[in-house]
Amino acid sequence: MDITTWALQLRFNFLIQLTAYVVLFISVMQSGISGVQGAPVRITLQTLQNCRNGSSFNMTTSCCPAPDVDLNVPVVDFVPKRHGVCRVRKALQCLSGEELRIYTEKLTTAYEIMRNLPASDPRSLMQQGRIHCAYCTGSFTHDGLSAAAYFTIDIHFNWLFLPWHRTFVYFHERILRKLLNDESFSLHFWNFDNGADATNSTQVETEGCFKPGHFVPRIYNNNSTSTFDSNRSNRTLVPNIVADLSIPGSEFFPVIPVRSADEAVPRNREAMQIGMERGTIPRDFFGVTFKYGDVRNLNTTGAGSLEFQPHSSMHLWIGGGVMLPATAAFDPIFYMFHANFDRLWHIWMETGDNRKLQPTDPDWLDAEFLFWDENQVLRRVKLRDTLSIGDLGYSYEKVNDAFWMEDARIIASLASERRRRAFQL
Ligand code: C2O
To answer: Where are the transmembrane segments (predicted)?
Structure first.
């Protein structure tokens, strides 16, 4: 089956599935069952033990922890190091010379090891990918509730999106570091939002990295190394095609034209401004609430502004397995572009008084996730402990954020009309 037929097939399956959800939603509403509301989502050992096959686009997925992963183990509380080392995650386009050579070697070695770990090892790329898959295919159910009635847990299209992905990438990076046995290693990021040519910059900057970052970092594009995945769209292989951040967030299999840089850069800039808009309530940037007892929500409009368009666009633009949530995290590219979304969340928080718009609802702050750490120990992470990257021991290299911010005042002043328009695309 060629990719177009496959995409059409998926689109068809998606429509069928969507119809099923709409019918389910209406019947749930009519019967007055609204679930148990008003408690945070908590992933527990029981949640993992009750994992079951999920479904995505009408296909069955098997993403539960491998049967030989021991789930009768102690869970250890994660304590963020508030005063430990701080590692810098750098912008990939700015590495050069010896630094690039060394980083390439470390990164490709780490992924080689990770790919070769037995599939039963929670640190293997296989299991890392499956964890993400389990969380987007309805494999986990709120403890005590029924999977058949769709009381399943998803970390997309709702307010768990940013903190869950931050924590996922954080543990992934810890695992890479351990596999390399290199305390200094950090996962560098794809600065796809930066389309500025430093030479045209109106700002005189003295520190940081100001090269445009919107091309696929080449370090992920060498087909003889472990960071490559042959499944990506051909677009990603052509040097100097700008990643498109402006693909409508509500479309699952859109036609994606290749745009010239002249066309793509202003579109991306606008998509970033909308994605990074301040908003007026926490829902605007973080997404809709998702609590214990909520039923599965596959409606993309539940997403916060950054997730809705720039994030969906990246998945669609990279294409192949990355296009589908169930398969996205099997590709190493996933982790380094998610590091950039993580950076963007951080930047948003640091901008103006956006910090005040962070949810204060205890059902958000007290949500709990479980992740395997670099020693295969299961860690219980409280969402409130993920809110500061400094507490997690890393920072981001300064890059040309001003490219699309072109001062935060623009973002703050964008009319809500424009935001509404983006959400309706
Ligand atoms: Cu869980 Cu970019 O997705």
So the answer is: none
